[in-house]
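Sequence and structure are kept together here, with a separate record for every protein. An example record follows, reproduced without changes.
>
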Amino acid sequence: MVNNFSVRNWFFIAFSLVPCAGYASTLNFENYKVSEIYSGEHYQLTSNEQSDEKWMTERKNAMEGPVNLAGNYVVYTVGCGGGTVCGEILNVKTGEVVGSLPNAYYINREGGTAPFALISKADSRLLIVIGVAADPEIGMSGEEV
């Protein structure tokens, strides 16, 4: 059984390793297997967050979808304005919003579309996010991270 803390850890580990993938061995979903995939009834959404109606509707719709991460989680994306996409992770066993993607990612930019992919598997804790951050972080030397 995977708890919320470990899913957050794997999410951020996977996200931070993607830029390094060219220098290390290829990330492999098999290396992050979970022992079982939850097949019971999905719990009703229990969000304490103050969100607008659009987000609540998107969460409810996602909660009805199939498990697609770490055995009992649903990761989903939704347009969040300005040609960007945002996402969250929901626990279908508890109905909780576990976390969100660390940034909004461009899907449309001046001059065309931007590459974006969110790759997950129901039987793995690995989540890979590929995209152009709408609000990139700045490193200690002033470079975009």
